């Protein structure tokens, strides 16, 4: 039985598809960067402040790296996508949280989860671009590998922050360990 194979996409069609893909990720990075900056402002004095500040800086740098790739590839930035991403981040702030006038502790969990999803998406982007870099010399494979490693580290940091926030939000206490008789 012959399974139909899809032809590879060449030239202008590949460039157009790459442009759409990169612009979609730039929109997500715009939203993620805004969320990270806002979280730094809200949690600066908390136990999360230092980690969030470092993450926000890296997320902004990653967004700039992605914007640079669009420029290197002569891909126009789709401003309407950036505007929609900015608006989506603002709308995401308005969510029922069990309180009328102030944020609940649940907000930090949801926001950390959103940042983690963004970091996962970013890692997937860098992974997807690695084989493309073999066909597109303007994409630097070594730089993509560095960005991928940083995204993976960001995921680990966000997992750690999330675990700490769960304990705090739900006021969990570590279970006492059973002592063994000597």
What's the alpha carbon Rg, rounded to whole Å?
A: 20 Å
- Give the topology string: H per helix, E per strand: HHHHH
Tell me the helix content.
over 70%
**Tally of separate helices:** 5
Taken as a percent bin, the fraction of beta residues is under 5%
Point out poorly predicted stretches. none
Give me the CATH architecture, please.
Up-down Bundle
The average pLDDT value, as a whole number, equals 86
Distance between the termini: 69 Å
Shape: elongated
List the helices and strands and how they pair.
Layout: H1 11-43, H2 49-72, H3 79-92, H4 106-133, H5 141-169
Helix pairs in contact: 1-2, 1-3, 1-4, 2-5, 4-5
Describe the structure.
The protein has 182 residues and is an all-alpha fold. The protein has one domain: Ferritin. Helices cover 70% and strands 0% of the residues. The protein is built from five helices and no strands. Helix 1 runs parallel beside helix 3, helix 1 packs antiparallel against helix 4 and helix 4 packs antiparallel against helix 5. The radius of gyration is 20 Å and the shape is elongated. The mean pLDDT is 86.
